[in-house]
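dumping this here before i forget
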Amino acid sequence: MARAPLLQLSDIALTFGGDPIFSDLSLVVQPGDRVALVGRNGSGKSTLMKVMAALVEPDQGECVVPPGISVGYMEQDPDMTGFATLGDFAASGLDAVEAYRVEMFADGLKFSPDTPVQTASGGERRRAALAKLMAEDPDLMLLDEPTNHLDIEAIGWLEQTLQNTRSAFVLISHDRAFLQALTRATLWIDRGVVRRQEKGFQDFEAWRDKTWADEDDARHKLDRKIKAEARWAVEGISARRKRNQGRVRALQQLRADRSAIIRRQGAADMSLQAGAKSGKKVIEARGISKAFDGKVILRDFSIRVHRGDRVAFVGPNGVGKTTLLKMLLGQEAPDDGTVTLGTNLQVAVFDQTRAQLDPDASLWDSLTGDPDMRVSGKADQVMVRGAPRHVVGYLKDFLFDERQARAPVRSLSGGEKARLLLAKIMARESNVLVLDEPTNDLDLETLDLLQELLGDYDGTVLLVSHDRDFLDRVAATTVAMQGDGRAVIYAGGWSDYQAQRQADQPAAAPKSVKKEKPAPKALQADTEGLSFTERHRLEELPAVIERLEAEIAKLEQFLSDPDLFTREPVKFQKGSEALVERQRALAAAEEEWLDLEDRAAV
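structure:
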């Protein structure tokens, strides 16, 4: 028996007053769906998701959600007016017996529920919005770039959590590894048309390429047919005018069909050119250390970077990756040790905060006002790798149209800001390229092109990223910052680092001997045999166990009311389910502590 859909769009049309974004769009989301929503930046992915969330009303058509079905949408810029803390916002709308879920998701997403809303960063606010959505546990989750502002550990936690959720979800992401691990179907937006394939993202590119190849073949056949019919019209129509008016009208229709075909947007015409070669030795750091306010960022770290190396820096947010980069570039002095820079270095930096972009400046002024790009006496030209270019023509290389040239930078999407910053960087010749979180907000096609350009770049690349696939494609060396000042150098990209780290781990101790449950707040374990992440987890588990025990006690007290079942059966049911879930979580946390403590003691 077929199950009723969770959501259905029928004959949707949307224009926003200009060219159609969608027309005659129909789609269905079923229970259990795990769908990747893909398409180029500007294709309408986020707009379609907002239509599904009933936040944007279409010009025609309808969005139907059956009674009793809940749909949750992760807000990109949540309105937290009236809430004192991130936890207050995330728990709003939840029953008291469900509020504990916020703390559970906040722990995985790495933000403190006690953080005041007024001091929270944009990333913390987005994580709180994601925790709110997941705590509400809707039947359908609409997730627009949920991995933005998450480090690799939090992305891994989110990936595992979504793999285990009962909810269906539609997911927009630029993270290939994330999409491949989670999705079973794909919605592809291309020039206002939404296609669906019942395969996950791992099969998307082959499907896309075949669709485009079939389209090109059909267009070539149509072109040949038009050419043949046009030749007939020129050579013989005067002698057969009356008899062949139908064929003439058919030719006109063929030409109309050809004109109606919407051409695919070309790939960005980005180009990356290395300048004069640097010296063979680019950077040499010996025994460098750094601490801020008593917190050790780096301790006794040494590295030698040669010309042409591709070095990635990975680790949790806040561990000090950007600080290490600044020390290696001579922008910040280490407390101890030395950094020696090679000769003839030309450094170009892509910073994660996009600080090089003035939000109030236009795209035009962002380029022509750059001293490195200014052409003397030519207000409409910029210098691109030693040659003058018209500013609009150069912007078009990065997929901006003429209308956007005078628009302020603040009006751009995250992906467009990233492309504009790439335009500034790629106009310069360089031989050392520093990319601090370059993959945020870029669409998959632009990421592919950037990866190809880096592969051909005859210079040195220093890269910070949480995109596991991109790290694997680009990095030849990985520096893993593990906390407490430790940074370890591994050969290869992310997958190679993971494999080597696993090989370095000692075998787990046998679990035949049952240990007593840890006493919260009193645990002191020898953690030499564990990684930084595992040591941190072992240190925090007693507090997790204590919190779970407190929540269980509250739920047991709540359920001890003998009249609760009769008076409020729904709350009794929810409380009972929450109690079972907390008891299972407590058992899992205790088992995890036992495993980590066993391994630490080896």
